[in-house]
Every structure is written in structure tokens, then in C-alpha cells.
């Protein structure tokens, strides 16, 4: 599958420079090449070649990886590294080319796998997607899926639920492809025995160490031999071509650090995002389900409803405990009744509004609902525990709000600066002074 790159400089610029280099000679030609290299190497100068239009980071077959997707993935990887390593993170790692190359390579690998998934006709059904989503640890609190936490985390990362779930669907499909390859590997008995034999094999080895330094110290080399070796091996003593360039470096951190956020702005952001700093109300519940077959006759429905009503009444009156009622009906109606703990639940987790409304109508632990009709039968729900919603005080989250606002303002400012830099680079392709003066930055010079 053909793959082409354009990160961070478009491939046409490299081809152009190479042609000039191949056909030009002398100090004047190298000066021209050096001057052309400067604007080409500035991040955001793609408008010099593309007329300001959109640019792709890579082309995988017929599919494009946009520069926007690449930059989003790059920023997310930076944030992951900062979160994992904290103060131990080497700043050079974030700014070096290796991280950019790794991110682009990962995007290309994902695109190749997605195309293979499409070619193989692999699909993830909605029930499979839902099961995987509910099992993700990052969206769980107190042992269960938290819908508000899910929506809040997606919102903070700039994702919609539909966009994230489509990405998860693609990820599950590619994982299915990987599992299909790795899980189908076969090992013969002969290969297994050979591997075990090699694993347990032991050998005794005797060796004699001859120090090279002693021999070198005793060796005598005549000047004529040195001259002769130099004359016969000139290629070993040729210095590689070198260039020295001037450049301007823009760092998001240097823009964010001096930004100060006023107290009123901090409080306004806090008030606008109270759901982000709050813990939603949580309830844990148990249920008893009196089952109904699909297409049940009216008489069967009435009988099941009456049974569920009897169970609810006995529990409310104290005649039986919830557990006693559950065990008794299960013993007398094997296969027709089931139940147990539902775990920790927050609003939006149930597919059925009726079941959710019944649970949230209960006011205190131990309360039992009226029977709730569902396609599977009649549910009787008991509220086990209730944890009220809690909101963190402003002072507790003040610094995190300030850091978030600084980051947002710095990113906006960084975008404006890169646009200014791109325009100035286009207007002054042979001189960095105007850009450095306009942006109040220092022109730096590389080594050889």
C-alpha cells in the first residue's frame, strides 16, 4: 500500500531543494539553498506552497491523514507523556522530531489496519460497542459506568459522543483483526520440543582474553605507511556536507507561562462548568424480575403482574425481606424469576426511562418500587444506597481552572502567531528579521 508523507514540510519542497542542489555549484548556489531552507522549515509555512489551503500529513492508499488530525494526535500524545512522567519528563522529548515521527507512524498504522478491516468486512455491532463502552475503566466510578463522567471527559477533550463511539468501533474492529491473526498462530509438536530443548540448553565455554591495548602500544607505524594508507583510502577521511541555518522557535509553554487569569474570570469559568467539578448523585439498587415470554398472552401478563405486585407488597409490609422474597420465588418458579444487585447507577444508564424513573422516585434506602413493565417482564426495584451529588469548592479547583484557561488562551495566541509567521515568511522569504521583530523572539542559529 503506497504511503506518502508531508510532515512537517511538504514533499514538493524537498524535491525542489534537491534539484537546485544537484544542478548548482559554488558558494552562491549554497547561499541560495540556505536561504530557501529557512522559510520552508518554519512550521505553518505550508501556505507558501499550497496557497494557504488545507494540507495532508500523509496519504495511505487513497485515504488522507489530515494535518489537523495529526496535530490533534500529536498534542494528545504530548499531554499523555506529561501526565505519565510529570517533572521527570525531558523537555527535549516533547520538542524533538522523534515524537512527531512516532505519532505520524501510529496514525499510518491505524489507517492501514482500518483499510484492512474494511477489506475483510469486519464489523462491530451496537451491542458489542455498548458492552465495550460500559467496561472502559476511565468512565467508571464506584464500580459502575457513569454517564455524566463519560460526557464530561469527552467534552473536555473536544469529542462528541458520536465521534468517540465511532472511533471506539473502529478500534474494536482493528483489535478483532489483530486477534484473528495472533490467535490463529499454530505451533507443531516438533517446534515446541525444539524450543523447550533450546530454552533449557546449557553449555560450558572457555575463552582467553587478549588485551588489544598492549598490542597497540607495542606497534610501530612508519610515516610512509600512514601517508600510503591515506592516499589509498581518501573516502574515509571526507567530512560530510554540513549546513548552518537560522531559525525561529515557538513554544506553547513560553506563551502560556506569562498569562495571568483574573479572579472574576476564574469564578465565571467555575460557575459555567459546575457539572465538571461536581460528583453526580449515585444510587445502587437491586431488582427482582418476573419474566414474560415474547408475545405473551394477556392472561400471562396479568398473572406476572400480580406476582410482581405480591412480591413488592410483602417486602414493603416487612412480611419478607427482599432477599427472602427473591429466594422463595426463584425456588417455586425456577427459570421464571431472576434478580440480584444492579450495582451503582447514575442517570442515563438505563435504556428504559420507566425503570430509571421508578428507581429515582425512591427516596431512601430500602424503598421498593411498584412493578415496572419491561419487554422482558415486570421489575421490582429496591434502592440500596443513595449518595447525594457533591460539588468541589472553588478554592479546591482554582489552580486547575487557571491552568486550563491559560492553556486555552495560549493555544489561541499560538494559532495567531503561526498565521503571522506564515504571512511574514511568505512576504520575506530571505530574511527572518521582520518575523523575529514582529513576534518579539530571538533568531537562533544551528550548529554545523
Helix count from the secondary structure assignment? 19
Average residue pLDDT: 80
Enter the CATH topology name of the largest domain.
Triger factor/SurA peptide-binding fold
Distance between the termini: 37 Å
Main attributes of the structure:
single chain, 448 residues, Chitinase A, domain 3
In short:
Helices cover 55% and strands 13% of the residues. With 448 residues, the protein is of the alpha+beta class.
Overall description:
This protein is α+β, with helices and mostly antiparallel strands and 448 residues long. The protein has 3 domains: 3-180, Porin chaperone SurA, peptide-binding domain (Triger factor/SurA peptide-binding fold, Orthogonal Bundle), CATH 1.10.4030.10; 251-273 and 394-439; 281-388, Chitinase A, domain 3 (Roll), CATH 3.10.50.40. Helix content is 55%, strand content 13%. It contains 19 helices and 13 strands. It has helices at residues 11-23, 26-41, 47-50, 67-85, 91-95, 97-120, 126-135, 147-156, 161-182, 189-200, 212-218, 223-232, 252-256, 263-272, 298-317, 322-332, 353-360, 394-427, 433-439; strands at 3-5, 56-60, 63-66, 140-141, 144-145, 246-247, 278-279, 282-291, 337-345, 372-374, 377-387, 390-391, 444-445. The strands form 5 sheets. A 4-stranded antiparallel sheet has the order 9-8-11-10, sandwiched between helices. Strands 1-2-3 form a 3-stranded antiparallel sheet. The protein has a two-stranded antiparallel ribbon with strand order 4-5. A hairpin with a 2-residue loop joins strand 2 and strand 3 (63-66). It starts with a strand and ends with a strand. 16% of the residues are buried. The model is unreliable at 6-53 (pLDDT under 50).
Amino acid at each position: 500500500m503506497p504511503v506518502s508523507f508531508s510532515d512537517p514540510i511538504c514533499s514538493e519542497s524537498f524535491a525542489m531543494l534537491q534539484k537546485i542542489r544537484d544542478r548548482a555549484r559554488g558558494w552562491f548556489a549554497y547561499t541560495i539553498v540556505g536561504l530557501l531552507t529557512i522559510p520552508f522549515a518554519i512550521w505553518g509555512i505550508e501556505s507558501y506552497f499550497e496557497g494557504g489551503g488545507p494540507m495532508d500529513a500523509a496519504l495511505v492508499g487513497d485515504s488522507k491523514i489530515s494535518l489537523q488530525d495529526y496535530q490533534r494526535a500529536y498534542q494528545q500524545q504530548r499531554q499523555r507523556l506529561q501526565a505519565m512522567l510529570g517533572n521527570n519528563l525531558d523537555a527535549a522529548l516533547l520538542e524533538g522530531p522523534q515524537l512527531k515521527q512516532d505519532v505520524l507512524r501510529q496514525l499510518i498504522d491505524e489507517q492501514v489496519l482500518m483499510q484492512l478491516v474494511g477489506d475483510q468486512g469486519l464489523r462491530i455491532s451496537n451491542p458489542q460497542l455498548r458492552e465495550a463502552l460500559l467496561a472502559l475503566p476511565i468512565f467508571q466510578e464506584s464500580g459502575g459506568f457513569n454517564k455524566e463522567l463519560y460526557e464530561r471527559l469527552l467534552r473536555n477533550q473536544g469529542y462528541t459522543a458520536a465521534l468517540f463511539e465511532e472511533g471506539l468501533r473502529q478500534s474494536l474492529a482493528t483489535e478483532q483483526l489483530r486477534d484473528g491473526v495472533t490467535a490463529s498462530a499454530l505451533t507443531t509438536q516438533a517446534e515446541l520440543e525444539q524450543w523447550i530443548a533450546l530454552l533449557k540448553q546449557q553449555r560450558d565455554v572457555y575463552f582467553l582474553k587478549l588485551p588489544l591495548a598492549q598490542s597497540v602500544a607495542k606497534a610501530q607505524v612508519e610515516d610512509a605507511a600512514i601517508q600510503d594508507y591515506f592516499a589509498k583510502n581518501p573516502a574515509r577521511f571526507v567530512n560530510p556536507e554540513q549546513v548552518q541555518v537560522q531559525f525561529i522557535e515557538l513554544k506553547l509553554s513560553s506563551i502560556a507561562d506569562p498569562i495571568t487569569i483574573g479572579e472574576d474570570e476564574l469564578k465565571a469559568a467555575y460557575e459555567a462548568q459546575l457539572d465538571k467539578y461536581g460528583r453526580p448523585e449515585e444510587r445502587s439498587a437491586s431488582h427482582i424480575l418476573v419474566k414474560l415470554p415474547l408475545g405473551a398472552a394477556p392472561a400471562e401478563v396479568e398473572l406476572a403482574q400480580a406476582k410482581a405486585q405480591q412480591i413488592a407488597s410483602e417486602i414493603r409490609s416487612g412480611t419478607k425481606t427482599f432477599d427472602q422474597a427473591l429466594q422463595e420465588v426463584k425456588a417455586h418458579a425456577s427459570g421464571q424469576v431472576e434478580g440480584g444487585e444492579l450495582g451503582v447507577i447514575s442517570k442515563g444508564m438505563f435504556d428504559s426511562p420507566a425503570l430509571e424513573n421508578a428507581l429515582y422516585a425512591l427516596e431512601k434506602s430500602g424503598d421498593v418500587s411498584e412493578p415496572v413493565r419491561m419487554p422482558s417482564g415486570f421489575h421490582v426495584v429496591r434502592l440500596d444506597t443513595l449518595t447525594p451529588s457533591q460539588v468541589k469548592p472553588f478554592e479546591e479547583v482554582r489552580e486547575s481552572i487557571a491552568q486550563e484557561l491559560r492553556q486555552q488562551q495560549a493555544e489561541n495566541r499560538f494559532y495567531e502567531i503561526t498565521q503571522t509567521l506564515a504571512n511574514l515568511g511568505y512576504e520575506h522569504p530571505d530574511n527572518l528579521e521582520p518575523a523575529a521583530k514582529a513576534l518579539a523572539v530571538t533568531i537562533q542559529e544551528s550548529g554545523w
